[in-house]
Amino acid sequence: MKKILPLLFFLAITTLTAQQIIDNDKTPQNKNAGRVLKLEEALRIDGEGENYYYNGVVNLQIDASGNIYINDAWSSNTRAHLVKFSPEGRFLKDLFRQGEGPGEIQSAYNFALSDKKVYVYDYMKRKIIVMEEDGTFVREFKTKSDSFNDFIGIFEDWLVFTRKDTPFERKTSRLYDVNNVIVFISKDGQTEKDFYTFTNQLFVISSAQGGGMMNWDPFMAKIGDGKLYVCSSQEYLIEVLDLKTGQITSRFRRSYARKKHEMREFEKKFISKYSAPKRRFDNDIRELFYDGGFLWIKTSTEMEDKGQMFDVFDTNGRFLDSFFINTNGRIVKIDGDFIYSSETDEDDLPYLMKYKINK
After folding, report:
1. What is the rounded distance in angstroms from the CA atom of residue 136 to the CA atom of residue 290?
2. Of 245, 304, 327, 328, which residue has the fewest beta carbons closer than 10 angstroms?
3. How far is the CA of 132 from the CAs of 57, 114, 307, in angstroms?
4. Which residues, including other chains, have CB under 8 Å from residue 139's CB and lie 6 or more apart?
5. Segment 149-181, tens digit of pLDDT
6. What is the pTM of this model?
7. Residue 343 above 90 pLDDT?
8. What sign results for the dihedral spanned by CA atoms 149, 200, 261, 342?
């Protein structure tokens, strides 16, 4: 971030109650905002090589030694992978073992790193697998809850998940309030507890019409330095949850020009069939990244010649910077002065690019 942000002078800010919102202007503190970041290729890892293959990047993690771990997209036609590479991009091992036995993963999963261990959540079998960084099986345990929507990451001795509690009564097709519950599970699997609940809305189809759901409000969360940064609204708003106290410590936003939603054909048919509400705008926030005391926000603003617009805030909710990143794919991780992007070539073959951010 030192190469992106200018030196910031100390700003005195008053202590805020959980009900107050920090409102930022549309213009960040960096006078060079609106630029396109200059990127220099630092590393490329092709999706297929000797003894390995992966189908794009769903999640990317880096251990203390700089080794890169990638889990890819699972489908009914292809098995998943959890491939590990050296910092120089040399293939080391595929840690994924498909199956239903101890240490084996059935299909879709997510993972996180902590204390030189790899923690894998198997969505289908509802179990957590613990392995060494070289893939050696340590243990596994079943979760007490039926299922989770996302494995967010790890905070101290807790695995952090989200569970969406949908309404049981579905007499009519309409928007319902739903609870997005933050759940803590101890690393040994002995303790599982609901920690905090965020409420937003989901369109639910009545049982008489066959059941089903349509996304309405988003829910995304990112752990950073003992806090959970959450977006659960279509509009530009971040809530900060203290993972020690279970209290919302701040909320912040900035003035943002919303992007009108372009309705696709399947949406028109869905709305007509189920009398669903029409979406006027795209979700302002697309994705969250946390790195080195800064929250990066991928916004809905995209320009053909500049790429995707990202905003940067500090932990006090101050709007520091805004710029465009133009790559041939999707940003999957921010790591200091480097950006990792999941991309495809002209033959639609996947590869991972590591870029160095230049001034």
Report:
1. 29
2. 304
3. 21, 10, 38
4. 130
5. 999 999 999 999 999 998 777 889 999 999 999
6. 0.92
7. yes
8. negative
